[in-house]
Amino acid sequence: MTSYVALLRGVNVGGKVAKMETVRGSFEALGFGQVSTYVQSGNVLFHTKAAGGAALAKKIAARLEKDIGFAPAVLVLSATELARVIADNPFAKEKGIDPTKLHVTFLDGPAPGAGLEKMKGFASSHERFVCRGTAIYLHCPDGYGRSKLSNNVFERVLEVGATTRNWKTVTTLAALVEKSP
Are residues 91 and 175 in the same domain? Predict the structure, then answer.
């Protein structure tokens, strides 16, 4: 069995409400083991023998549509992939960085270079972002809520799916998925 984290985009925001109990039930109905959720924003930990990636994400989204009435975008990361995201964060290693101002935008595909260049126009003079693979690391010293570097902008400019988590959530998910056998 492999440990995974599913990141559900847009759950319990903007009127799209899903009880985590129902979400857990959907994952269990798919035959996944040791299903648990973290906070109410669509973070699901689970185990399966099935290979991760887009096919697994599509299967989860279809089941959720049936059970909660809408199909959120789903990104699936293995424990190993999530650990790599943490290790690769260039801002976490900088002296004096406030970790509450760090976020990771997870992409469902590679970001085109031209799109990343366009994204620079959305960042304020205080903000920085770095793309490594399918993770975009954000440092938003004025707060993510004030940033124009939102999921919607990343999706529109890069033409890939995106969902963002704050650094505390990312590191907590990694610790939880690492602990699970």
Answer: yes
33, 52: one domain? yes
Check: CB of residue 64 under 8 Å from CB of residue 72.
yes
Residue 25 has a CB neighbour count (10 Å cut-off) of 15
CATH number of the domain encompassing residue 139 = 3.30.70
Range of the domain at 142: 83-179
What angle in degrees, to the nearest 10, is found between the helix axes of 167-179 and 79-87?
140
Averaged over successive runs of 10 residues, the pLDDT of the chain (181 residues) comes to: 93 78 96 94 93 90 94 94 97 94 96 94 95 97 95 95 96 90 61
| Amino acid found at 143 | G
Q: Where are the beta strands (DSSP E) in the chain?
A: 2-8, 33-38, 43-48, 74-78, 102-107, 128-132, 135-139, 162-166
**Same domain assignment for residues 155 and 170:** yes
